[in-house]
Write a structure and sequence with these properties.
Blueprint: H1 2-21, E1 25-27, E2 30-32, H2 39-48, H3 52-67, H4 71-83, H5 87-99, H6 107-119, H7 123-135, H8 143-155, H9 159-166
Antiparallel strand pairs: 1-2
Helix pairs in contact: 2-3, 3-4, 4-5, 5-6, 6-7, 7-8, 8-9
């Protein structure tokens, strides 16, 4: 049963992603891949209509493009979604800026998007913005504020935040390879 569900979800994701790229084709039987299913058309529609259902679907499509490493294609949609308060889009942008995937690498931009989502109360963003504050990655280091944000995430049952607190803030316990180091060479474990 799990395999069947995985296959169905996988084919749905693939069809959504492929519909973002396929050209419109008309023949005597009708239209295949109509332009109104393209991500560009939907983005333009979103700019003129505040319909939340369209926003949700379009942001999800952009998230799927991002997961498929189609970062430059997803970027304008993620930016629009993030501006409209879509937390997953803000996390996607933070990740893109942190790694330089489809954009110029910038820890400051990554931290900016994490903070915006964190300020909205999204626990995952609170955790990662808290880590940025602990390490000084993209922001001025502020250990007390970083710990407070991580505790807010834990209070929302974020299991990574809980694990981080239980490990005495050993960041490598939740992020192997310590990929949260600031521009400094100091190791980031056990911040007290």
């Amino acid at each position: 049963m799990k395999l069947l569900i995985t296959l169905v979800l996988g084919s749905l994701s693939l069809s959504l992603i492929s519909s973002c790229f396929a050209a419109e084709y008309k023949d005597q039987y009708g239209t295949t891949n109509p332009i109104e299913e393209s991500i560009e058309f939907q983005l333009e529609n979103l700019k003129t209509s505040p319909h939340n259902g369209t926003l949700t679907v379009l942001c999800w499509k952009a998230h799927e493009l991002r997961k498929a490493s189609m970062n430059k294609r997803a970027l304008p949609v993620l930016l629009e979604c993030a501006k409209r308060g879509h937390d997953i889009s803000m996390l996607d942008l933070a990740s893109m800026y942190e790694t330089g995937a489809g954009v110029k690498r910038s820890n400051q931009q990554a931290a900016k998007w994490l903070k915006k989502s964190s300020d909205r109360g999204f626990s995952t963003a609170q955790l990662y913005y808290g880590i940025a504050l602990l390490t000084g990655k993209g922001v001025k280091q502020n250990i007390a504020e970083g710990k407070a944000l991580i505790h807010r995430a834990a209070a929302q049952a974020d299991h990574l935040a809980i694990n981080l607190i239980n490990s005495n803030y050993d960041i490598e316990s939740i992020i192997p390879d310590g990929d949260v180091k600031s521009n400094q060479t100091a190791k980031t474990h056990n911040i007290n």
